[in-house]
């Protein structure tokens, strides 16, 4: 068998997906895919040949990664990346992609060869590890460490953009009574209810975290400096009303209140932990005032 025929037979037999595109034709059409490509993507050779590889892209494909691939190809350079692609049946998969230019005897690029590998399981496992490291397992909200990191990033961004940020510190009043009277399973579901309500009540861009126990925090970003305090106060009022609504759990309606303290940062030096401590102190001050009012009414 001649060397060229041997190479083509080996590529066809390879379990590694191979795609070859014509560098001399407009839009770099596919001129060859091996059987492993069809097995991975569900597209036949007839469907792939003559088209640009962008047919593998979809809604979750990162535009930045696509630009990096395009820039490397235009520069005639090899490129390696991981990108979300789509099979013929519409399902997503993480594709580890390696693209190399192929040169002729004169040094001109005639083709691009790409190898592909499905790394979905690896990426899913990596995301699960990241989720476990940064999120509260009970509610799915950010944990303390991730929240403080996000807060520090937003403080730096606010300083650059001339905006303000607000931090809310919420503590469920008398939560221990729910745990003691109905058990931890009901208590856990109550905390999940609070987390869902917080998430629904705030903007998508606002971060929400559970610090532990019955303590939650929220980060309000991109606030106009002159309106920051009023904006934060309005959010606190809305949350207090929403969280005061009865919660049906295990056949019983529970009523409770949530004490919320707020801190607003508009200028000057501050760290995320300092702002969080300020909101925490404001929350306890609010809780003490509420207890004093209740004690006065009970006399």
UniProtKB/TrEMBL annotation:
Pfam families (alphabetical): GGDEF, PAS_9
Residue stretches making up the PAC domain: 77-131
Residue ranges occupied by any GGDEF domain in the UniProt entry: 163-299
Endpoints of the signal sequence: none
SUPFAM superfamilies assigned to the protein according to its UniProt record, in alphabetical order: Nucleotide cyclase, PYP-like sensor domain (PAS domain)
SMART domains to which the protein is assigned, alphabetical: GGDEF, PAC
Coiled coil ranges: none
Gene3D superfamilies on file: 3.30.70.270, PAS domain
Stored CDD domains: GGDEF, PAS
Domain of life: Bacteria
Domain PAS as annotated: residue spans: 3-76
NCBIfam families, alphabetized: GGDEF, sensory_box
Protein name as it appears in the record: GGDEF domain-containing protein
Source organism of this protein record: Cellulomonas aerilata
